[in-house]
Amino acid sequence: MLSTSDFRNGLKIEVEGEPYAIVEFQHVKPGKGGAFVRTKLRGIKTGSVIDRTFRSGEKFNKPNMEEREMQYLYASADQYFFMDNQTYEQIALTEENLGEGRKYLKENMAVKILFYNEKPIGVEVPMFVELKIVKTDPGVRGDTASGGTKPATLETGAVIKVPLYMNEGEIIKVDTRIGEYVERVR
């Protein structure tokens, strides 16, 4: 059991049978009445953020959550298939489970799958991935690094902005958290 005194950013708690992660919290002790804790909670299944207030000392269950290292195999229709590296068991996740991370999945990539009550609910792709540019306007002599950007389609189908001097076939490093170009990979 967890109490409001255990609250810290990133802590996972169960509220009304659903798993949440604490985004931010503030202990408030008014002059009159009992102390309370004002929180912003992010739903782990849904990703939505809600504001909740709890009485000081209120108790919460720890959600039955587990992270497993798995390998991305392939996609078929709206299903994405992963394999557990220890048991070789395969699971399928939908586009809703994957969220924005699906744009950066490459076959055989190692990812972390989040399980809640033994059911897969989400995926955590690596922070940085190296992907090949498959379609973009050609770079022109004189385009510099300090110039503008242009759209580029990556091998996974994601479209991001890259510097003007980048060409098709080049491999780049992409920050999956914000979906932006980081650097060219040599």
Q: Strand count, sense and closure of the main sheet? A: 5 strands, antiparallel
How far is it from the N-terminal to the C-terminal residue, by CA?
Answer: 50 Å
- Ranges where pLDDT stays below 50 over 5 or more residues in a row are none
H/E element string?
EEEEEEEEEHEEEEEEE
Judging from the principal axes of the Cα atoms, what is the shape?
flat
Could you walk me through the main structural features you see in this protein, from its secondary elements to its overall organization?
- The chain has 186 residues and is mainly beta.
- Helices cover 2% and strands 54% of the residues.
- The protein contains one helix and 16 strands.
- The chain is flat.
- 15% of the residues are buried.
Brief description of this entry?
This protein has one helix spanning 95-98; strands at residues 2-3, 12-15, 18-28, 36-43, 49-55, 59-60, 65-76, 79-84, 90-94, 110-116, 119-124, 128-136, 149-154, 159-163, 171-175, 180-184. It has 186 residues and is mostly beta strands. The longest helix is centred in the middle third of the chain and has 4 residues, at 95-98.
List the helices and strands and how they pair.
Elements lengths: L1 E2 L8 E4 L2 E11 L7 E8 L5 E7 L3 E2 L4 E12 L2 E6 L5 E5 H4 L11 E7 L2 E6 L3 E9 L12 E6 L4 E5 L7 E5 L4 E5 L2
